[in-house]
């Protein structure tokens, strides 16, 4: 049982996913404050309301004789928040990492020495595999 769990945890993409969730939560908190504290009040001012989620409300009758509210302002606010989170992740993480990869690949193609070029993912995984093989790290019996 533990052997299977260990294999699952040791996969690189599980750790990448965990990091992505933590970073995403941090960016969501920051962008949430930005949207709720700056964007929503600014857009709410256009609609004469303190908050965007309290504007563009459409009331419709229900079959039971009551009323239901469709909160288009809240939907617009959530869409803006999503776009801001996506932009923050792209410009703060994805774009710089892609630039670093492009530079490393250009150095590799130009024939730079191994010390000048950071290793790519395949090289790192190969080194980790070799280290585990030499230290007996992957040969436990549970």
UniProtKB/TrEMBL annotation:
Transmembrane segment boundaries: 12-35, 70-93
Function: Channel that opens in response to stretch forces in the membrane lipid bilayer. May participate in the regulation of osmotic pressure changes within the cell.
Gene behind the chain: mscL
Main location: membrane
Keyword Iron-sulfur: no
Organism: Leifsonella bigeumensis
Assembly: Homopentamer.
Pfam families: MscL
UniProt keyword annotations, A-Z: Cell membrane, Ion channel, Ion transport, Membrane, Transmembrane, Transmembrane helix, Transport
Keyword set includes Transport: yes
Name assigned to this protein: Large-conductance mechanosensitive channel
Membrane-protein topology: Multi-pass membrane protein
């Amino acid at each position: 049982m533990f052997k299977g769990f260990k294999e699952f945890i040791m996969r690189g993409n599980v750790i990448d996913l965990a990091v992505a969730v933590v970073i995403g939560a941090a960016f969501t908190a920051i962008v949430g404050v930005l949207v709720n504290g700056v964007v929503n009040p600014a857009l709410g001012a256009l609609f004469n309301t303190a908050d965007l989620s309290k504007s563009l409300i459409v009331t419709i009758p229900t079959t039971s004789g009551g009323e239901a509210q469709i909160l288009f302002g809240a939907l617009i606010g959530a869409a803006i928040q999503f776009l801001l989170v996506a932009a923050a992740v792209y410009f703060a993480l994805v774009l710089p990492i892609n630039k670093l990869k492009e530079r490393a690949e250009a150095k590799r193609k130009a024939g730079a020495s191994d010390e000048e070029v950071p290793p790519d993912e395949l090289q790192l995984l190969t080194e980790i595999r070799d280290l585990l093989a030499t230290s007996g790290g992957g040969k436990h019996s549970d």
